[in-house]
């Protein structure tokens, strides 16, 4: 903990404070003490009775004057199967906290300067494992693995809360795909269903459908009782649903534009990140060759407005206009796709200049 | 007045201060004293000479060196009539301040906790009355009544400023529909026309046309001399213009996502609201059944970016892409519409997580 | 320098501070001292070796451990020529600082009040000159001149950094048009190419292509080593690329919605501007007649979300919906175009009400 940093010091460099509501209190996350308090509350939250009832099949919860049950809360749901011709796509994913270096090279190549220490903090990430959680598939990352499906498929995601550091329930909540309330992966207070509260050490299998209207590029993220804090710590990833048999781009990149708040990192700087890292050289360097079909999918991964801008290129937006700089809102995505024709070194960045200067940049290298 | 709350206390929980320009001063609305000063200025503003001239037909105003008149300022305008086959749709609407409870149940069902007192402040709302202001049609609400028309119709809105508490002129300014300058409902300083300054106790009838390019879902709101403050107090509502004979959705909901600033409410919390209320259980609980045609129309009702996200559903955006989370800017709207096929309890919310945690949430209950 | 203004005074009226990264330091531009420090750093930045190498053809730069060269950094590029039937469109443009009055009339006609002094600060602007920099074509302005081309043309822009006041390198970086890395006009640290660092007193000729997918309305702006600060000082302008032979609108207006930060202006007010000016009467007054083809192109010129709203009109957005209020993100544009049919005096403004109140307004006068 950095001593001697007052509230304003943290707020000042990070802009407006995050607001987090947890365990009956609304906390403005202005400094590390606020975050510690929110985490303490989160650890004290017990499994909602409704979710427990579904899990262990005990007697239904007692009447709750503040949370009257509706007929829809008594519904039961099956587990969806693939459509004819579709497949089950299985993933094993663990949520775990880890020491995360926001700038492994220690250098900002775009602005050509050193990035001062400290650069490491305790983040929270989704990590992919092989079948049956036999072995991790590579290191944990921010964002988590990309889940892929085609229309008619079912995503079966075996999720494990493997974290012991923060000691609180987390989940996986998907966008875009279809799910029943049991697989929503969202804490709803007294109305929480089984998938919405996965305590440390527990596992849960989510089943999500790739319906025809799920075609697109979507985020998933934590939606447990401490969602705001844990999502901002790195618990997010991407889902792509394609038409059956659709061609993958030759080069396909998924970028989250998001900030790590000073109150969370205990680092007294505004860290505007791409995929958990700050500044070209640390963020993804994407490579392509002239003639390739190239796609950049960019997500807003925090509470701010960002834009995806890349030098030397333009593309047709969904509304038919040409663009080289598309706004992207919180937990939405935009896709830029083109046939490559412009060799050289190019910068991609958020066009909020304060974000660009605080690290939201990366390289795109095109060979002839 | 809450004593002992300094400026930073209010600014801190509410984020950036509202800026309000009124009566020759720009005021950052950081605390209740600022708001009181702005209101005092607003009460001192006299009816602009131009608006008075149109009202009472006295001699034209004297030459004003700062505000030279243009030829267009001397134009006269008629009152539009419906197109062949169209109708006059009449409404009687009063603006009046009222004590407003932001959380009547005192409970946040999404996060399952009590919402502390104080929860009530003096808001400003539009209220619908029966013909000739004979009797109120239900209680005053935030937002005000939804005005409906079809292409070719004319909306005739009898407006009364029935407020004595704030003691200042207010108006109704519509989006989307066509109007002449007299029915613009906007204060323009020395260029204000009759509909732009409705003093306490006065009435004015606005006439607005539902032209073919007015099809859509639009806001209306105060645009008097103290617009910023009074709109943020609750003076807004919705207009829907449909194609002639268009089918109404089976379930149609109009949601304003907006904050009540601490300086306005004198409540030391960031109140992120849906339709003037915070948190699921207080905000609208929307009900539908499988098979119904369901539409959610969401407006940005303040100065911030919001998004409309709802669990378990996705829909086709106007640009042809599928979405489950659409950004919505200040005083714009987005429409999400689908045929219901997914029973259960679902949360809708703004995906700015700080807004979600501060109350911008609600329930959507779908029966099989 | 206004003495006695503490950090909070500047931050308070301007909202969140700009973040600027320059010369190895990240600076939150909260007050004039921060800006002076950023400028001092910017003046100390030497021409990157790679850019120098391209310019003077000396031996290649020594190995740089932090900035390893990639094969793409060794590529050479030609200078594009027009397509068959296309033309070379030549412009001579100088960047120079100047004393800039944000409100020449001293009056806000929309709110009918005086705008207090001080109203002048040292801005940075692009100014158009006649062929060979023979003579300036009118006064310097914010935004800079609009560059026009049709598909198949080449824009040849002779750029001169004519500023001696700030003493630092600036550039012109275009959106939308196609360019090779040499004509990107962007500082990339050690990877900077010739067009990315134009020191005081230097000239450089950019060549940009109007490809078929460059059709649209685009910004250009500084992208030198102190981009954030100098763009926010006024170094931006517009580019329009039309289909070959496309008809120009009868009335065509290019509006930048942007703030001048108090730390930059040393003026203790939040100046929300249109084209460098605050408040109707100082910002562009646009005139048209019934029957004319009218286009408003609006750009976001800073780090904030703005919207373009105009009274009495609506138009079809690119996605096919009707709108009267379109959000516009940082360095993106939206176009509103209609056949005029509604005479009178109309206000255009940003619908972020705090921005409207702080000056982001203007008049549109329509004659019958």
UniProtKB/TrEMBL annotation, chains A, B, C:
Residues annotated as domain Plastocyanin-like: 142-244, 272-367
InterPro entries in the cross-refs: Cu-oxidase-like_N (IPR011707), Cu-oxidase_C (IPR011706), Cu-oxidase_fam (IPR045087), Cu_oxidase_CS (IPR033138), Cu_oxidase_Cu_BS (IPR002355), Cupredoxin (IPR008972), TAT_signal (IPR006311)
Which residue ranges does the record annotate as region Disordered?
49-84
Q: Does the keyword RNA-binding apply?
A: no
A Pfam family name for this chain?
Cu-oxidase_2
Keywords, comma-separated and alphabetical? Copper, Metal-binding, Oxidoreductase
**Top-level lineage group:** Bacteria
Recorded GO MF terms: copper ion binding; oxidoreductase activity
Query: Is Oxidoreductase a UniProt keyword of this protein?
Result: yes
Question: Per its UniProt record, what PANTHER family does this chain match?
Answer: FI03373P-RELATED, MULTI-COPPER OXIDASE
Q: What is the recorded name of this protein? A: Copper oxidase
């Amino acid at each position: 903990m950095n001593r001697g940093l007052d509230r304003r010091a943290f707020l000042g460099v990070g802009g407006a404070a995050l607001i987090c509501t947890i365990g009956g209190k609304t906390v403005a996350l202005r400094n590390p003490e606020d975050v510690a308090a929110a985490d303490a509350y989160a650890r004290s939250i017990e499994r909602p009775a409704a979710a427990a009832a579904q899990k262990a099949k005990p007697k239904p919860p007692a009447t709750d004057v503040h949370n009257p049950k509706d007929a829809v809360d008594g519904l039961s749901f099956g587990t969806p199967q693939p459509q004819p011709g579709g497949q089950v796509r299985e993933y094993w994913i663990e949520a775990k906290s880890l020491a995360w270096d926001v700038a492994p090279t220690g250098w900002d190549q775009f602005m050509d300067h050193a990035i001062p220490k400290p650069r490491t903090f305790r983040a929270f990430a989704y990590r992919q494992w092989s079948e049956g959680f036999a072995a991790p598939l590579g290191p944990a990352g921010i964002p988590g693995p990309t889940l892929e499906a085609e229309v008619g498929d079912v995503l079966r995601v075996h999720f494990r809360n493997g974290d012991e550091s923060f000691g609180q329930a987390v989940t996986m909540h998907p966008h875009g795909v279809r799910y029943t309330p049991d697989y929503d992966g969202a804490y709803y207070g007294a109305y929480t269903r089984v998938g919405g509260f996965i305590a440390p050490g527990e596992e849960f299998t989510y089943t999500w459908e790739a319906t025809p209207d799920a075609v697109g590029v979507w985020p998933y993220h934590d939606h447990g009782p401490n969602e705001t804090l844990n999502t901002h710590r790195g618990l997010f990833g991407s889902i792509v649903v394609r038409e059956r048999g659709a061609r993958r781009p030759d080069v396909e990149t998924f970028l989250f534009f998001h900030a790590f708040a000073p109150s969370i990192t205990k680092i007294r700087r505004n860290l505007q990140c791409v995929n958990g890292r700050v500044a070209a050289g640390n963020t993804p360097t994407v490579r392509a060759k002239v003639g390739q079909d190239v796609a950049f999918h960019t997500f807003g991964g925090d509470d701010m407005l960002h834009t995806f801008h890349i030098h030397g290129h333009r593309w047709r937006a969904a509304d038919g206009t040409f663009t080289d700089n598309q706004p992207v809102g919180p937990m939405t995505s935009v896709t830029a796709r083109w046939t490559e024709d412009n060799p050289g070194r190019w910068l991609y960045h958020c066009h909020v200049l304060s974000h660009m200067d605080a690290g939201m940049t990366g390289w795109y290298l095109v060979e002839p």
